[in-house]
Write a structure and sequence with these properties.
Helices cover 30% and strands 33% of the residues. By secondary structure, it is of the alpha+beta class. The protein is extended and about 55 Å long.
Length: 70
Amino acid sequence: MTRPYIKARPWTWRDRDGNQTPGVALMHGGSVKAHLTPNEARALADRLHDLTDAAGNPEQPLPSTTAEQE
């Protein structure tokens, strides 16, 4: 069995009254499973990063530039 997977893509949610909410859709197959506003998407990204670090997978340091090495 393969792992379930979602893809994120820009998406504008349109409700029945015609109101539009720009943000990010989390897609599985061809259907929207969740829609996040930009602030919600950033908060989720922060939470995912925190969970990844807590699982013992620290972020690799960025390479130093010449100015930082002086």
